[in-house]
């Protein structure tokens, strides 16, 4: 049975999120709110948890997962970022954007694109998730919580718990969040390319 952590959306209780972080450390997959939609997350270095995360969404190994980071400096340690890219990242973090960048050696090889050696990274703007990341002390491996056969992310924490109570270790309930995935921007091939238009406005980045 999934544990349920009901936290305040703006002033989340660290005591509860510390319990959720412990589930991550013990190999659990969590459903968490973000500034774009609910997501499934697990520890970056936990292959079994990553396989469980993929199984919930029925994703194969070709479907790349992204990293959720605490801040821009942490993001930059998991990707190779030049000055031009850094200025663009600074405009979009924190926020509902996923950036495709060349992965650094900090990223396990099984997680980066096999040919291009790229990885998707983001820094979300959500109080509960920010506290969880701080307590966890490292990036989280993530994917949007869209169930097989569906086109929209799940947005109701109670519905998430009902449908996934035997598949996830816990659900962080900070109320409903937006139901639109991130805007995905590829910065790995020179000029920025918008791969998916989502909640993040490209105009904020001058695109």
Topology diagram in text:
Elements (H helix, E strand, L loop, with lengths): L2 E4 L7 H12 L4 E3 L6 E5 L3 H11 L8 E3 L3 H6 L1 E2 L2 H10 L4 E7 L14 E5 L4 H10 L3 E5 L12 H8 L5 E4 L9 E4 L6 E4 L11
Parallel strand pairs: 1-9, 2-9, 4-7, 6-10
Antiparallel strand pairs: 2-3, 3-8, 4-8, 5-6, 6-7, 10-11
Written account of the structure:
By secondary structure, the protein is of the alpha/beta class. The chain has a single domain (3-205), classed as Alpha-Beta Complex (DHBP synthase), CATH 3.90.870.10. Helices cover 28% and strands 22% of the residues. The chain has six helices and eleven strands. It has helices spanning 14-25, 47-57, 72-77, 83-92, 127-136, 157-164; strands at 3-6, 30-32, 39-43, 66-68, 79-80, 97-103, 118-122, 140-144, 170-173, 183-186, 193-196. Strands 1, 2, 3, 4, 5, 6, 7, 8, 9, 10 and 11 form an eleven-stranded mixed sheet that branches. A hairpin with a 6-residue loop joins β2 and β3 (39-43). α1 (14-25) packs across α5 (127-136). The N and C termini lie far apart (44 Å).
